[in-house]
Amino acid sequence: MIDDTDKTSDILRAHAEKTEQNERPAPESLDALREAGDFALRTPSEHGGTGAGVEAVARRLTALGRACPSSAWVTGTCATAKNLAVACFPGSDELFADADALFCGSGVPGARGVRDGDVVRVSGRWQNVSGCEDAAWASVAVLVDGVFSFAVIPVAELTIDRTWQMAGMRGTGSQTLVAEDLSVPASRVAAAAPFGLNDQMLYSMTVLGPVVGGARGALDATYAMFASDRKPFMSAYTRMGESPGARHWLAEAAHLVDRAEETMLSVAREADARALSDADSARLRMALADAGRDARAAVERLLDLNGAGGFRTANVLQRFWRDVSVGSRHPHLNPYLAVETYGTALAGACDAR
């Protein structure tokens, strides 16, 4: 079980409600994440960062998500955006001068660019850019003269359209970034190769880690409820733990969270250990989708244990429920496409025999 007993998690937990209300990470949370080096997880080591592997990223985001899934999500987006910047602009002193700078980004080519001498003129919109209101740099996909490329742009040069209106993961501040005929130095625009499978697994961890962490945070809240004087209503029991049924459901939920976490870490370890092949992709995506579903199912079981009181706005459980419900439905964790892809791969392997 991933531990979160550190100062950063305590600060995130204390300001999680403020993060949700403000629809962006609380300043205190951002300061704590920066101080802990969490924004430097994928900053190259030669520039003062951690250069963390896939498993290390997954573990850290899970620990942070246990306290505040939205803050963990923004931290994960930073890791993804920095990874993209490193791939396109390795060794850039300009981009990595501050190892702890917050990056945001989007891999969806929401803009077009036209080369004009030493600049590329960029116009377009990138939706759902987590953490953009507090980020220094944005790594964004652009079609430049029809070629899939990435540009790294100071967020201060872009406009933010506040379009993020969601039931869960509200604190990610995943607003829309807008560029209107923006001149970007050609040195900060580069054609991009298709994402490698190992990188894809890293990007999936930045989504799944906060989700698994959120499920564990919901489990923590339920443990606290069992330790209190709360009893099953309309029963003769004096405490929740006296009920065999309640103990059974608690065990089921804990098992689902543990299984989600171990599945995630198993995939992460495989991605760290070797170069993944196309044959690995469908199997691992199925595993990640299963982990997301396990996390969501666990929280649903915990809500059943807590009853209607779990939906009080003062109860942290309902925030974890909303965050996990939204986060686990990210495209990286799409279960029906994972099943479809895996089934196609298995049928193809049978045909080839």
State mean pLDDT (0 to 100 scale): 95
How much of the residues is beta strand, in percent? 15-25%
Level-2 CATH architecture of the largest domain: Beta Barrel
How far apart are the termini? Answer: 41 Å
In the residues, how many domains can be counted?
A: 2
Number of strand segments:
7
Supply the CATH class of the largest domain: Mainly Beta
**What coarse outline follows from CA principal-axis ratios?**
globular
Low-confidence stretches: none
Protein structure class: alpha+beta
Q: Order of strands in the sheet with the most strands?
A: 5-6-2-1-3-4-7
Biggest sheet, open or closed, and with what strands and sense?
Answer: 7 strands, mixed
* Order of helix and strand elements from N to C terminus: HHHHHEEEEEEEHHHHH
Which homologous superfamily in CATH is the superfamily of the largest domain? Butyryl-CoA Dehydrogenase, subunit A, domain 2
Radius of gyration: 21 Å
Number of helical stretches of at least 4 residues: 10
Helix proportion range:
40-55%
